[in-house]
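Appendix B, record 7
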Amino acid sequence: MIKKLILGVLALAVLAVVVFCVVVAMQPADFKITRSATFNAPPEKVFEQVNDFHKWEAWSPWAKIDPNMKTTYSGATSGKGAGYAWIGNDEVGEGKMTITESRPTDMVKIDLEFIKPFAAKNVTEFSIKPNGDKSDVTWTMTGTNNFMMKAFGLLMNMDKLVGGDFEKGLEQMKPIVEASAGTK
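Structure tokens (predicted):
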């Protein structure tokens, strides 16, 4: 009787794992996270902030999470070929970014590689559109989730989690951009 009960429990556990794996496998692999804001400044002032990694520390939501984070810069000072790498605490992890495309006052595209706490390669893009004497700024990250990230996505809303950081970054960048334009 106990053997049958144990076998029944094991069979249910295996079935639960199989069902979970099927549900995870059926999740979409590709993802896109986007947030936008309007700045009271011309596009070139926004572009100056996102095209130069040296300026990110003033507004990046992750720079404030770990004040002891170690950062290094490589390649060009700004624009295409500029690189930025970081090693931080468990919350910010480790990774690197490289600007792969830079169109003045219009767009900055970045290859983003996370090394820790999990490996992932994504593309981040800042799109800047003039809107009268203002700028509409859109921050987007796209990528493909592996099995583990799909499973994690079932437990955590990644759009809300990362999107919240994008919102915070745009909020922190806005006064810097507007002050540099003298428009506050």
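Remarks on this record: The mean pLDDT is 87. The longest strand covers residues 120-131.
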